What we know:
Chain A is α/β, with parallel strands linked by helices.
Amino acid sequence: MIIVMCPNSTEEHLRKVEQKIERAGLSYHLSKGESRTIVGVIGDKKVIAELEMNSLEGVEKTVRITEKYKLVSREFQPEDTVVDVRGVKIGGGHLAVMAGPCAVESMEQLREAAAAVKKGGAQFLRGGAFKPRTSPYDFQGLAEEGLQMLQQVGQEYDLRVVTEIVDVNDVDMISQYADVLQVGARNMQNFRLLQAVGRSKRPVLLKRGLSATISEWLNAAEYIVSAGNENVILCERGIRTYETFTRNTLDLSAVAAVKELSHLPVVVDPSHGTGRWQMVRPMARAAIAAGADGLMIEVHPHPEVALSDGDQSLTPQHFELVMHEVKNIARAMERA
Amino acid sequence: MIIVMCPNSTEEHLRKVEQKIERAGLSYHLSKGESRTIVGVIGDKKVIAELEMNSLEGVEKTVRITEKYKLVSREFQPEDTVVDVRGVKIGGGHLAVMAGPCAVESMEQLREAAAAVKKGGAQFLRGGAFKPRTSPYDFQGLAEEGLQMLQQVGQEYDLRVVTEIVDVNDVDMISQYADVLQVGARNMQNFRLLQAVGRSKRPVLLKRGLSATISEWLNAAEYIVSAGNENVILCERGIRTYETFTRNTLDLSAVAAVKELSHLPVVVDPSHGTGRWQMVRPMARAAIAAGADGLMIEVHPHPEVALSDGDQSLTPQHFELVMHEVKNIARAMERA
Amino acid sequence: MIIVMCPNSTEEHLRKVEQKIERAGLSYHLSKGESRTIVGVIGDKKVIAELEMNSLEGVEKTVRITEKYKLVSREFQPEDTVVDVRGVKIGGGHLAVMAGPCAVESMEQLREAAAAVKKGGAQFLRGGAFKPRTSPYDFQGLAEEGLQMLQQVGQEYDLRVVTEIVDVNDVDMISQYADVLQVGARNMQNFRLLQAVGRSKRPVLLKRGLSATISEWLNAAEYIVSAGNENVILCERGIRTYETFTRNTLDLSAVAAVKELSHLPVVVDPSHGTGRWQMVRPMARAAIAAGADGLMIEVHPHPEVALSDGDQSLTPQHFELVMHEVKNIARAMERA
Amino acid sequence: MIIVMCPNSTEEHLRKVEQKIERAGLSYHLSKGESRTIVGVIGDKKVIAELEMNSLEGVEKTVRITEKYKLVSREFQPEDTVVDVRGVKIGGGHLAVMAGPCAVESMEQLREAAAAVKKGGAQFLRGGAFKPRTSPYDFQGLAEEGLQMLQQVGQEYDLRVVTEIVDVNDVDMISQYADVLQVGARNMQNFRLLQAVGRSKRPVLLKRGLSATISEWLNAAEYIVSAGNENVILCERGIRTYETFTRNTLDLSAVAAVKELSHLPVVVDPSHGTGRWQMVRPMARAAIAAGADGLMIEVHPHPEVALSDGDQSLTPQHFELVMHEVKNIARAMERA
């Protein structure tokens, strides 16, 4: 941590700063410049992480040098994490594709979607049984009945199942049916939920919050890993900006950033990331070109009758086209 | 809902749109303009709320005309809601002030803070026992022990107690100690938590999410009210923008907006809203001038040793000054 | 400037960093912590301002400690600047109000507006003759004819005239008619225009850019002052955020920030800041309570027929009400 | 335009709305729903574009259905525009690459950069002679001397020259030296500059503003085209968001959006778009995969001594690597 003293701070102010640092068991270096005195704090990273200095008189500002997360950082583990979901690998150069309807509606719908998903070459069936919806009056999902359908159809088509968890009390129940527990964007900083899935061994797909910084996202992942679960897959799904043409702004530079800062695999959801089915195709290609380890895509056999997010769902025909192009890009990058 | 057809859409496209509307039990008006055909959907608001039309061919875009929330809207209830917390009123022209430390640390700290809070004229003691922190390594709060302290000190100083709830399983437990359950910004769309506090009768302080629109915030309140709890107090606490000088951008126009759209009382938290103690004073004045029903302010007897958010906490001396000025503003607006 | 070295940087990397600093005529302090080596650069602020170190190998990031602007900083000049516009003062506790139509349309419109503006107690008549409009097909203003009207009506009602300049070649021409040259939000970083008005002696009202940071805004002011014109008035007019209920998000904390960082006066434009006439009243009160030196408000005798921005214009009746309340707030803060 | 009446609006309010529409020479359709009456305005698009209805009593809000731009829309011209720059084509499936230093510093620097640019396969040499810099104390460019160097080196290496224009008075002068006039992000809504380059025939590269919506960007292009210059190339260069890890957030979905809405070619600048040289490579690949017509990349022979933006400049070696990968992606998409 760097502490910048005010230009008019006194020797007494500086002494109090030094004392607080020493009381915390840390040491420091002083650097007296032309216009500012700067104090560099040295010592245990975790102790520094908790140090707060701005409220001391004479302090202009503080600058944190290191991130608080550790276990998820590439500094801690240089080689890529590869998450194994019953034999299907995510990370390390593999191309993982998760596809399916936003919400599970019926066996018929799910089977049609799964057939398309399988045919396109995806390895995962995604579908929501518990839907976090902005309004209490929107369709909230089929709950456990939906999970049973997912498991059944997943087995029929040999697809791994990804589904969202929204309640800390549901970890064991959902784990009976699903292979991957998805923590949605709205729950990225629901720390109790992060701890709960962290105590499980089930792989977790952690979506980036609507306006989460990359640092906050990795700290959220740290909650899961530090609770004991190393099987975390990050998922970029668009951030909130001033632009209204798209539902969110898909931040593909976050893929490159995460690859630099962390060893965790990262997939991209161009369906939520844009909110427009027409844009899923170019953004899916771009995601893979940016280095993403996979994709999460909404596919619905009949988007025009979907109970939620039909606007951003692909038809089976469009999905096949996307998969064809995505594989071409992956091949051009020397990945299968 | 307004459906805008593409300029090159066909009669067949239009027929499919009309059929889908009719199948949903709704009716429509057609308006054929020079460059676009527009379809206005008419009928039950809740049915329209669930209608999705963008995935139909020939549809350029849809525009929603009405909000999904109802019970919290001023259209539904024109007169202001006044929440009564054991005799202390929030809303309807009363000036409610909630103050205290970010986190409960010890009886000594809490008593000193409560004395200052009481002296300044606040009616509520705020303090966190369960802290949602960005990093798993930050101080997480004293848990139930902290709640006991809050209750005890609240009684000693005749202050109502406001504290944060982060777990759906904690409603009954926290309700034993606290008068108002606070739902934090990071949990504003933790819908399970909203439903849980909605089943309670305890007043709920609902903070605006870090990047929540006013519409999403009111829909979150609708979750609570529609579950049976009408005692909701909104709290503006700053939104996330590109500006980095302040921790958040305090959006005081949200106060005016909420007053226009809803009957619920709204308070402002200038401490989190700015993240800088120097700015609490002008922003507290401005909040009241904008029409807020009250304030939530961090006060710590010794901010320089605070375990969390010391940077934005006022000393008792500064708090007194703020209260003096805020009361002057309230008086100028003909409020006590 | 602080340079943070990568955890895996070598002695060779560090030597190159040191050499580059020395070649620039600067010196440095080294601070070797547990996880990072940090280099604090010391020396001439302007030389440091131009130093770029991120492209050197082994450098993780750099942190700038001081701002680049100087003349507009409170550090350079502790006492408030008071701008005198032919006897009317802006800054230093005075309450300056600028009001009038968005665009000058006719003598009749302008006279009616000026009468209302004067009656309400404003000292400045504002009106646009050159309008920067998003679309080339929108009304672009009456140009010099509009300026003549402004001057004429300003004289009739003893009001100072504020009008926008959009072309570097117009400084002399507009200065014949107007007392204050307004640089609009879209031109805040039109540096040629800033230099042009900086070479004039005419007071300049510098609006904050749509997504300008406070630092960029003050640097823009520095362009004007460093070119020789000290008469700069800042104007907060709302920033661009994800919220769509209001046209912009009025950032009143920017008022407090500017007061802390700079000696320049700052006024607030709640009309553009919200884009909704209903919100001008509460936001005008809040602006003054936050410490603003004045207001800029759109007033149109007949907003329903206005050629631009009628949505955010007050009627004369509403303007009087706003002025009454604003003066009450100013009085409560012990200002006339 | 759709006008939504308040739930409590009267027949009188509605009549005034109807009258204003009729006075403007437009007609309307009425749609009376359960909770709202909606008025659809029909008639000449340009007249509707200027209609303002929000200030009428009883009006809740208005929704614009069509964009104001016309000439740049795909609706107006379905086939792609291909801009020809002395034989080099931009748009229509061609891959155009513009590369070079942020600022022209010397003949030596420029020649080294041009050699690398040419070797990598780019067709355009970019370099700034007039630099719009945030602070008046930053390096402002070599002015006309820099232009002469650009022209000279461009001829030596058979590269077309792209350079930024910042002053309305410079069109003729710069056109003597450069093939493409670049309008920078900070000047995207400097409408006088847009009109000035619109009166030229020289191709214009129009960068997206720091926080410009796609609609505003296309309206800015409309200014140029409607002034007579059809040779407009759009350039996405990152938008301003809350994320601080990158300098800007590169919005690749804007590429797909522009391809849908407009016939103009669009290139991507991953150097400014990320501000970090390490991210240029993945983002350049992603841009082409998203469908961009080309790239603008900063290349400096010695980034560590660059006078501006060294942090985001590639070395010649890195540039070659990027070009190799980008061509692979283009090939995978069946483009040369």
